[in-house]
């Protein structure tokens, strides 16, 4: 069931969104070649708890799937061909030229915020830099369609059209989602689709929109044996950006904007 958030609930979601964005701001200041992904995770967890929140991802497991090992970390840190759900480790060292996608969720005051950014480490290949920039553009084009009266797949089509116009592939088996008191709520928000289809968007819907775009021909992410980390089928680089938004009339409200641009 898709829930419509009240203004009281939206005010609470602004706070979880603020902390989520500030975690990613912190990561952006600290991330560098030579760090381990576990160091990033430790920084993030400490910041979240110092700000009265709880990591949304830590010990998360999909409902109805008892065979999946709960997620063991605060962040998902995915490097190069890893699409999403990269597990932080003391053995995984970030290298010059990597692209590092960091996904963060914060639970505070009963509501979740969820956001992701892809960071470029030092000198990155120009083709990969373009992928990162286009993926961010895909996110903003999708958000521009998240207004009351539109259809859900207007968001999806905007993401897909921009990615394919640049020769990139959309990862089809990883999608965005509704969000609120639960990290993952209805409806799923795919990154591909046909305009003017899907449920009608109503003011107060809360969505996590998250394009995952690959340089190669991969249309699906393939999970490794650890249940979690998902990589491109062909080993090509992948980028990931995400915002939590509220559907409004005329223009969506972004709950996880960075710094002084925050709503």
Automatic annotation (TrEMBL):
Chain ranges of the Peptidase M24 domain: 12-248
Family (UniProt): Belongs to the peptidase M24A family. Methionine aminopeptidase type 1 subfamily.
EC number: 3.4.11.18
Function text: Removes the N-terminal methionine from nascent proteins. The N-terminal methionine is often cleaved when the second residue in the primary sequence is small and uncharged (Met-Ala-, Cys, Gly, Pro, Ser, Thr, or Val). Requires deformylation of the N(alpha)-formylated initiator methionine before it can be hydrolyzed.
Cofactor note: Binds 2 divalent metal cations per subunit. Has a high-affinity and a low affinity metal-binding site. The true nature of the physiological cofactor is under debate. The enzyme is active with cobalt, zinc, manganese or divalent iron ions. Most likely, methionine aminopeptidases function as mononuclear Fe(2+)-metalloproteases under physiological conditions, and the catalytically relevant metal-binding site has been assigned to the histidine-containing high-affinity site.
HAMAP family according to UniProt: MetAP_1
GO MF term set: initiator methionyl aminopeptidase activity
Organism whose genome encodes this protein: Prosthecochloris ethylica
Keywords tagged on the record: Aminopeptidase, Hydrolase, Metal-binding, Protease
Subunit record text: Monomer.
Residues reported to bind a divalent metal cation 2: 114, 177, 210, 242
Binding-site residues for substrate, renumbered to this chain: 85, 184
Stored PANTHER family: METHIONINE AMINOPEPTIDASE, METHIONINE AMINOPEPTIDASE 1D, MITOCHONDRIAL
Pfam families membership: Peptidase_M24
Cofactor(s) annotated in UniProt: Co(2+); Zn(2+); Mn(2+); Fe(2+)
Domain of life (superkingdom): Bacteria
Gene3D superfamilies: Creatinase/methionine aminopeptidase superfamily
Reactions catalysed, as given in the entry: Release of N-terminal amino acids, preferentially methionine, from peptides and arylamides
Designated name of the protein: Methionine aminopeptidase
């Amino acid at each position: 069931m898709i829930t419509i958030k009240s203004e009281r609930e939206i005010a609470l979601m602004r706070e979880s969104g603020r902390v989520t964005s500030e975690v990613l701001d912190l990561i952006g200041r600290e991330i560098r070649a030579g760090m381990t992904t576990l160091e990033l995770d430790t920084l993030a967890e400490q910041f979240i708890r110092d700000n009265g929140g709880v990591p949304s991802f830590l010990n998360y497991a999909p409902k109805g799937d008892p065979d999946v090992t709960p997620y063991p970390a605060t962040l998902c840190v995915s490097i190069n061909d890893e699409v999403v759900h990269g597990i932080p480790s003391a053995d995984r060292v970030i290298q010059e030229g990597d692209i590092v996608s960091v996904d963060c969720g914060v639970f505070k005051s009963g509501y979740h915020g969820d956001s992701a950014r892809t960071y470029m480490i030092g000198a990155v290949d120009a083709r990969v830099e373009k992928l990162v920039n286009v993926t961010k553009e895909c996110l903003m084009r999708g958000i521009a369609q998240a207004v009351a009266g539109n259809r859900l797949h207007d968001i999806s089509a905007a993401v897909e059209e921009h990615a394919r116009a640049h020769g990139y592939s959309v990862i089809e088996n990883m999608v965005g989602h509704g969000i609120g008191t639960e990290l993952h709520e209805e409806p799923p928000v795919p990154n591909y689709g046909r305009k003017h289809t899907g449920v009608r968007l109503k003011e107060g819907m809360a969505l996590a929109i998250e394009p995952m775009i690959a340089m190669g021909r991969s249309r699906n992410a393939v999970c490794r044996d650890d249940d979690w980390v998902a990589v491109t089928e062909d080993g090509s680089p992948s980028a990931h950006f995400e915002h939590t938004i509220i559907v409004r009339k005329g223009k969506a409200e972004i709950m996880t904007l960075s710094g002084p641009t925050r709503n």
